[in-house]
Amino acid sequence: SFMLLRILPAYESRSRESNKISIFSPPVCPYVLRASPGDKDGSEDVLSICNSLNSNQGALDAEDRERDRKIVELKNMYDSRKQRLYQERMELSKKIPDFWRSVFLNSDCQEWITTAQTSVISQSFLEFKISEAAVDDAANDDVDEKIHRLEFLFAANEAFHDDVIWVDITDSGLVFRSSNIRWKVGELATQLQREVETREPTLFTFFTASEVPDEEFEELCLVLGPIGDYLLNDLWPTAFGLYYEQMVTRTTVEDNAPL
Predict the structure, then answer these.
(1) Residue 14 pairs with which residues in a beta bridge?
(2) Is the pTM of this model over 0.90?
(3) Strands in the chain per DSSP E
(4) If we measure between CA atoms, which residue out of 21, 198, 203 comes closest to residue 125?
(5) Closest to 189 measured CA to CA, from 159, 211, 218, 217
(6) Per-residue pLDDT tens for 130-171?
(7) What is the C-alpha separation between 6 and 154, in angstroms, rounded?
(8) In terms of Cα–Cα distance, which of 96, 157, 106 is closest to 127?
């Protein structure tokens, strides 16, 4: 049989007048079990219960780890299967010259595309794609998340020499590294560089994040995180929906225009 035992520690109180310590016990907690009356203080029984609880917690933690492992495996399996579909979408979208331009300019990306950037995107932006980036640098062995490479393809323009600007980000959208833009000499390039220097959350600041000094990189990545997260987890999976939505809107406006 079991009796009730209060196992909370005794409290010490010190009287201000006598400065003496007196020991007293608070009321017994009615929810703590102790061993049978034959056990002097129940300490062996409590230790045994704690050992059992520890084993129980270990089993719970093991189940959590197994669940997380299976979730990762399942996600990777479906991500792999989706690559074929993304490639098919890429080939189809190439048949629509302004597909990705329309997606970017009519999506939530608008808040990160400003002034000079709008000129570059609207005139020379051709294509956007995401693939898994290889992380083979020994210095990056501590990276736990999968790294994704975001590639932005451009036609010849007045701002930079590059055909492709790329950014590597983690699953959560944080910038891991990026290419170095080779700027041209001219007014448009100067305007873009000035925008980048403000460190405001814009698309071209996102492109050039790894060019900032090391002491600024981590803080800037946190500011730019929402851009990477949106591109990876919202815009990329639903690109056609975004394009179709603005196409329907444009058609409706044209149909309702006065003759």
Answers:
(1) 21
(2) no
(3) 3-4, 11-14, 21-24, 33-34, 125-132, 147-154, 164-170, 175-178
(4) 203
(5) 159
(6) 998 876 654 455 556 789 999 999 999 999 999 999 999 988
(7) 73
(8) 96
